[in-house]
Amino acid sequence: MASNTPAPEAPFDAFGGGAAPSAPGTEWNPTEDSLRAQNRSGGRHRVVKQRSNFARSSTVLGVGVIAAVGAGGLATAQEKPPVAISLPDLPDLNLPDAHDLPGVGTLLPEEEPEAVPADRANPNPLTSATYTTEADERAARTGQVTQASLTTADAPSTADAGEALRARILQQAEQQQASADAAEKAAAEKAAAEKAAAEARAKADAAERAAAEAKAKAEAEAKAKAEAEARAKAEAERLAKLAASYSMPLSSYSLTATYMQSGSMWSSGYHTGLDFAAPTGTPLKAVHGATVKSAGWSGSYGYRIVLELEDGTEVWYCHLSSMTVSAGQTVGTGETIGRVGATGNVSGAHLHLEVHPGGGDGVDPAAWLRSKGLTV
Question: Model pTM?
Answer without folding.
Answer: 0.40
